[in-house]
Every structure is written in C-alpha cells, then in structure tokens.
Amino acid sequence: MKDNLRDDELVCRCEEVTVGDIRKAIQAGARDVTEVKLRTRAGMGLCQGRTCELLVQQIICRELGISADKAGFSTPRTPQRPVTFGTLGGDGFDK
Amino acid sequence: MTNKSYDVVVIGAGVMGTSCAYHLVKKGFKVALIEKIDIARGTSSHCDAVALIVDKMPGVDAALGYASIQRFLELKNELSYDFELHQKGSMYACETDQEMDIASKYAKSMQDDGYDIDILNPKELLEHEPFMAKDLKGGIFSKACCGLNPFKLCFAFVDQVKGKGLDVYSYTDVKGIKLNDKNAVEGVETDKGFLSTKKVVNCAGVWSPEIGKMVGVDIPVKPRKGVILVSATSFPFCNQKVQEFGYMVSKFAEFKCKRDPDVEKYNVAFTIEPSKANNVLIGSSRNFAGYGVNTEIEIIHAIAKRAIRFYPILKEMNCIRSYAGVRPFLDAHLPLITDVDKVPGYYIATGHEGDGISLSPMTGRLISELIAGEKPYLDLAPFSYNRSKKNN
Ligand SMILES: Cc1cc2nc3c(=O)[nH]c(=O)nc-3n(C[C@H](O)[C@H](O)[C@H](O)COP(=O)(O)OP(=O)(O)OC[C@H]3O[C@@H](n4cnc5c(N)ncnc54)[C@H](O)[C@@H]3O)c2cc1C
Ligand code: FES
Fold first, then answer.
1. Given 1.10.10.1100, 1.10.940.10, 1.10.10.10, 3.40.50.11810, which CATH number is that of A10-76?
2. What is the CATH number of the domain that holds B343?
3. Is the CB of A45 under 6 A from ligand 2?
4. Among B312, B329, B346, where does a domain finish?
5. Read out DSSP for B137-157?
C-alpha cells in the first residue's frame, strides 16, 4: 500500500467509497471490516468486496495500528458470484 | 472502567439497547451502554427494516406499532445522523380468493379501529406495483408504513448522546449482575471490570435469557431464524415494501390458509423491500434452528421460488448475497417491556421477534418513562413480566 493515501482516492469502486469515507467511519468508532462496511457500504457492492476488502482492511490496520487479524474480514456468503433468482428458484435447481 | 458509577446500565447495543440508552439520556440519566461486540452487530444488522401497521393485530399490537411510526417521524428531525427513513407505504398481496377474503376482513377490523388501510382490487394492486404477477387477487395497503436503515438507526441513537450522558463500552462482555441482600441491583460485572448502578436494562435480544439467568429471572425468548437475499442494483422496479399475505399466516397461527408445501418447511413467506441503494432485499423464512446464521441453499431456493412467483421480472435479475438473522421470539407474540418485582432495579426490553426495528422507538421511550417513574405513554400491562409468567 502506498504510504500516503489521499482522502479522495476511491477504495470501493462498486459503492464509490473513498479513503476519506473510511477514515471518517474509523473516527466514528469503527474498528473492523464489518463495522466499516456497515457505516460506509464498502464491500456491499456487486463484487461483494472481492476488489476492495483487502484495501479496507489495510487502511484500518494503518489508521488504528492494529494487525490484519484484528481488523478481520466480512463473512463470505452464498452465492459465490452473482446468480439469477431464476436459477436459484428454478424447478431444476439442485439443492 | 472499574469503579465507575451510572444511573442506568443498558446491556446490548442493538436497536433496543441504543433506543433505550438514547431515551434514558434524554430524561437526564447518566447511562452506560455495554456491548459484547459493537453497535448493531447482532440481529439489528441481520434483518429487514420496515415499520408497519398492516402486519399488526388489532389492539395493543397495532397501538404500539402506530405510536412507534409517529415517534419515527419525530426522530427524523430529532437525530442528526441520517437513518434513511422514508414513508412510502406498504402492501400485502393475496394469491388466492381465500387469502383475499381473510385480508379484507382484517383490513376492515383495522379500519374500524381508525387505521388508514385500503383494500386493493387486482387492477389497483398492479397500479401500485406494475411488475408484480398479473394473476394476483388483490391486496391491502397502508400509506402510513415506513422503511429505514436499521443499523444506521442504532448509530443515530448513539451518536446523538455519546459523551453527553452516554458512555459506550464496546467489546465488553457482561458476566454477571451483582444484587444486594434485598435482591436489588447493585452493579454489573464485565470482562473489563465492574460498573456500579442501581438499574439495569436487559436489551440482549436472543441472548437475553442468559442475562436473565444472572439474576434468576426466566426469559423464554427463543431464536427464530430468517434468511434474506440481496439483489444487484437495478432500475427501481419495486416501489414499496410488499409481502405475500401468507406472511400473516406464518406470523400468527390464527389465520389458516393452504400453503405451498415446498415453502412450508421453513415457513417461507415472500417479502420484498427496496433499499436506498437500489438493491432489493427479499425474504424470508422462520424456523427454530439455534443461534447460527448460516444461509442454507434449501432455504435460499424456497425464497427465490416465492420471489419469482410474485415478481417474474426477478427471474433474470442477479442475487449477490444472502444473509440470516435470529429474531427474539416469544410465544406470546408481544414483547416484554417491563420491570421485575422480585429483582428491584432490573428491567427487560426484548422479545420483539420480527418487529424490533419497528417497535424500538416506543420501547425505548416506555422504558425511560418507567425508570423515571412517570406515567407511561401506553398501558404496560400487556408487556409486563407477570403476564409472561402466566401466558408463555
Ligand atoms: C430476517 C429478519 C427480518 C426482520 N425484519 C424486520 C422488519 O422488517 N422490521 C422490524 O421491525 N424488525 C424486523 N426484524 C426483527 C428485528 O431485527 C429484531 O427484532 C431486532 O433487531 C432485535 O433487536 P435487539 O436490540 O433486541 O437485539 P440485537 O440487535 O440482537 O441486540 C442485542 C445485542 O446484545 C449483545 N449482547 C448479547 N449478550 C451480551 C453480553 N453478555 N454482554 C454484552 N452484550 C451482549 C449482542 O451482541 C447484540 O448486539 C427482522 C429480523 C430478521 C432476522
Ligand atoms: S469494490 Fe467494493 S464491493 Fe466491489
């Protein structure tokens, strides 16, 4: 990670969340990836954090001086990648 | 934190704990809010968030729901942090003539009690929701219903009073409650130290039975799981919260309708809710399966199947995530908002099941009135611990 990230740099492209937004969330009390996600939507987009989560985690580590372990990660959930409701709910769906 | 002293200690920073803490500070109390994880990390961020009138039973249930909606409209101006409140109304859709019949009777009894509920014929239903299936039999609608962001509501309650009468202890686990020789509350024991106080409010949701056991009070709350599917963002094809009337069947056993056996097993009833970010949230199931929040593929399948039944357009749309939460369920179908005779200084605010977001503003207000020794805005008898001893 670059040493000095500018506040206006984009972290989460899907939800258009910047470094500044994440810093603000941390100032408001967020201490891990999930709490930042709840306060900023970073990681809630189409790619479900596959693009941004690591960077979010690193920013938290840097700002708070904690380990990646402490900053955590968000819980992975089904589906692994976007899939239509037609497929999920279809008659031929393999449970 | 050791040796600090507070007027009231609130346990659990979900929607109930944050609302109680906020309303207590407004009454002038010095309050500590203790939370095992962090603000809104329990059920209050694993749910939908509508405040409805069309899903309440006539009587105290509807009265509490209605008063909460009025309180939400005040809070929108009172709290600086935006919790995305909107009043777009909400609708129930009926799949069969039998459901429509029961729904109409329900709507009429609510109208008799003075609530603003319309009965929609199939054409009117499609005017409200043009993308719904064309063969539905009609529905009922109330424009009073609100939607909001549940975890932002928790942040809003906290941010307003933090440092101005409220201290928040995150990542702090309550381990015990100290009582004196008269069985009255003396303080709260945590993994980070002791806080002395004469008053404790148990707002621990599905975990409230544990906090009850600490003082020998039995709280019969059970975790009732619900799964939700999130769509990718799209053009706004859904204008408001919509539910299948079958939801009423799964919520209150008094209404009996024939249901699809495929969805019966997990008590699935279709609900859809547009979010501010242009996703829709689609739910949900109701089953007793412990505290876990995994999203089983079998339940996802049943929910998706109901979803495309009501909104065929969803067939081609993407699902990007599923999540689950556990509702604090009580057999009595009414929450506990109460003190406890045998333990002076011990209060309970839980058991709201699938209505906790909706009922949180009034619950917080009622608890603050109770603790301040004022006459509560609503009669608390139906929510008292003594009724639960008899009925649960
Ligand atoms: C799928 C689903 C959909 C829903 N939809 C709606 C809806 O549309 N409208 C609506 O009104 N409601 C809805 N609900 C219900 C609503 O989410 C709940 O009623 C509400 O969130 C309960 O809030 P709470 O504050 O009581 O519990 P929680 O939010 O779970 O808060 C309890 C807190 O206590 C903490 N805690 C537990 N033990 C301890 C301890 N020992 N020490 C310290 N802290 C502790 C927990 O960490 C937790 O943060 C839904 C629920 C689900 C699951
Ligand atoms: S970049 Fe953040 S969710 Fe996709």
1. 1.10.10.1100
2. 3.50.50.60
3. yes
4. B329
5. -EEEEETT-EE--HHHHHHHH
Residues B228 and B127 in one domain: yes
Q: What is the pLDDT of residue B252?
A: 57
In a domain, B258, yes or no: yes
Residue B331 neighbours by CB distance under 10 Å? 12
Of A30, A34, A83, nearest to B318 by CB-CB distance is A83
Say whether residue B155 is in contact with chain A using an 8 A CB cutoff.
Answer: yes
pTM, two decimals, is 0.95
**How many residue pairs bridge chain A and chain B with CB atoms within 8 Å of each other?**
83
A30 vs B contacts (CB less than 8 Å)? 38
Q: For position B107, which CATH number holds?
A: 3.30.9.10
- Tell me if A51 CB under 6 Å of ligand 2: yes
* ipTM computed for the complex: 0.91
B281/B1: higher pLDDT:
B281
Nearest CA to ligand 2 atom 1: A12
Distance B65 CA to ligand 1 centre (A): 17
Residues B239 and B127 placed together within one structural domain of the fold: yes
Answer with the one of B329, B344, B367 that is the final residue of a domain: B329
Ligand 1 residue neighbourhood (C-beta within 6 Å): B 11-17, 34-37, 41-44, 46-50, 173-174, 203-205, 207, 226, 228, 283-284, 325-328, 350, 352, 354-358
CB distance A34 to ligand 2 below 6 Å: no
Omega before residue A76 within 30° of 0, cis: no
Structure tokens at B379: 């009669």
pLDDT digits 0-9 by tens, B198-212: 999 999 999 999 999
Task: Give the contacts of B7 (CB within 8 A, at least 6 positions apart).
Answer: B24, B29, B30, B31, B197, B198, B199
DSSP string of B153-219, one letter each residue: HHHHHHHHHBTTTEEEE-S--EEEEEE-TTS-EEEEEETTEEEEES-EEE--GGGHHHHHHTTT---
pLDDT at B388 over 90: no
Q: Give the pairing type, strands B200-202 and B222-231.
A: unpaired
Decide if pLDDT at B121 tops 80.
Answer: yes
pLDDT of res. B392: 46
Per-residue pLDDT tens digits for B174-228: 999 999 999 999 999 999 999 999 999 999 999 999 999 999 999 999 999 999 9
Question: Does B316 sit within 8 Å of A84, measured CB to CB?
Answer: yes
